[in-house]
């Protein structure tokens, strides 16, 4: 029963794509099928569907991004990094943003905080209002600072992080401004409106 309903769903999606598209719907069908299997946790079938059309040129960036997601879910971080780095900014700004963000997350998990910091900066250049990127950038910066201060305490010298003092000062300023904005937006309940049960 489940196989039959999956086939019907894929047939309906393929028909819809074929009717509204002037070009071949096959890459879209494989992309949708791969997404379907990915969300079901069937990474092998998802990978197979993504790989069927990887060289077609159509939606190649999305296929590379989704393959990166599969590899990331499987814990194959280097393979995921390779796929995310191949995503082109020319296909979609949103897609490129997601790839940069995911690279930042992976490098953070690998404890390469300097690279993580740089990828979150790239993500914020593409989407400056993204809260998750801002938070993760701050986490990366905190880890960088703690590694620099820990290294400084051990050796008595400053470790080179690639960050300029002006960048650190700017991030401190942004942090203080964001903190001020969040604090000022907190709603303080008036004591007269609270009912005591």
What this model shows, in words?
- The protein has 197 residues and is mostly helical.
- The protein has two domains: 19-87, Serine Threonine Protein Phosphatase 5, Tetratricopeptide repeat (Alpha Horseshoe), CATH 1.25.40; 88-184, Serine Threonine Protein Phosphatase 5, Tetratricopeptide repeat.
- It is 74% helix and 0% strand.
- It has helices at 2-20, 26-40, 43-52, 60-74, 77-85, 93-109, 113-126, 131-155, 165-185.
- The chain is elongated.
- The model has no long low-confidence stretch (mean pLDDT 77).
Write the layout of secondary structure elements.
Elements: H1 2-20, H2 26-40, H3 43-52, H4 60-74, H5 77-85, H6 93-109, H7 113-126, H8 131-155, H9 165-185
Strand content: under 5%
Q: Which oligomeric form is depicted?
A: single chain
- Assign the CATH class of the largest domain: Mainly Alpha
CATH topology of the largest domain: Serine Threonine Protein Phosphatase 5, Tetratricopeptide repeat
- Average pLDDT number: 77
Total number of helices: 9
In the CATH classification, which architecture of the largest domain applies?
Alpha Horseshoe
- Which structural class do the helices and strands define? mainly alpha
β-strand number = 0
Give the CA-based shape: elongated
Largest sheet: none
- Low-pLDDT stretches are none
Task: Domain count, please report it.
Answer: 2
Distance between the termini: 54 Å
The SSE order reads HHHHHHHHH
Relative helix content: over 70%
Integer-rounded radius of gyration: 23 Å
